[in-house]
Design a protein that fits this description.
There is one protein chain. With about 350 residues, this protein is α/β, with parallel strands linked by helices. It contains eleven helices and eight strands. It has a six-stranded mixed sheet, sandwiched between helices. Strands 4-5 form a two-stranded antiparallel ribbon. The radius of gyration is 27 Å and the shape is globular. About 10% of the residues have low confidence.
Length: about 350
Amino acid sequence: MFPSIHHAELISGKSYKHHSDIPSALVLNPEVTSTGSIEASSTSSDPTTVSEGTPCVLGIDEAGRGPVIGPMIYGAFYLPIDLHPTLLTTPPSVFKDSKTLTEPYREQLMQNVCTKGSDLYDHCGWAVKSLSAPSISEGMLRKSGEYNLNTQSHDAIIDLIEEILSRGVNVKELYVDPVGRSDSHQSRLERVFPSLKITVKPKADSLYPVVSAASVVAKVTRDVSCKLLYKEFVSQSQSGDDSSLNETQTDVEPEWSTGYPNPKSQAWLRKEMHPLFGWGNECRFSWATSKDLLETTGKNATGTKVVWPVDGDDESLRVTDFYAFGSNPVAPTANKSSTEEEMLRGWFGSKVGQEAF
């Protein structure tokens, strides 16, 4: 299994990040380790004195923005400017837009990137940020104000860039596939990273090999993540009996196909939907596809309607109010019949006098 897969976080519905080791050739400063942690200096404690390493180019792209099922993965890939694009366009490792490559070839490229001793491993670094389906849905559905997908995407990109810079990588050029309008996205990044030469352009994954490499890292991570989520679903469906599927097995083809809102995924969602809880950590509840299934009413209803009390409606009520007899503080109203009141007394009991003791 590829190191970008954090199994425990994935299955539990949590978002996470993963950074590869930084090739020693990219960081000349001895205070920065190969894994990117900046150690205390014997001569200065000021992090601004960290000497610059090899000038690098950084590309960022995502996989899984549109699907109703599975995480959205942002991938980042960097290497020395003087090796770009040659290192990424020379056989046997030729990077292109991941959507144009076969799954076996994408996985082979990822394996080359992760194999010690290969040119890609020795000269390139990469990172991913996995935004889980529950995290995406929570942001888009929260009451305090929608944290929409574009904003979540912007924040994921900035987060990855900041962490790569903080690990001592001397990024000089940045190439990004846009979120929304290219000009506004580029302006936003330039405000946050004024020292970088930034290019935000549609189809960047087809134009710049460093972005193609980022797209491959993101796509492979998402594909494997979806297979493991489906494996977990099958395991749960079989009452926890996963004897036929081990934790790292990734040769399982999800019944929901790619997870995009197509006939296969819609059929799977309809078939496997729990009427009250919907689905598990694999599904984005904020997508129209899943919301429609949960909220359909009438004879075609597939979900159970849940009515939540409005905040503050019952603030003045106490549990003991339901035990009162005779002069009941919770008096019947136009919406509460005496029959309903009697039902409550019968359920909770009624007040007894002192003589009972």
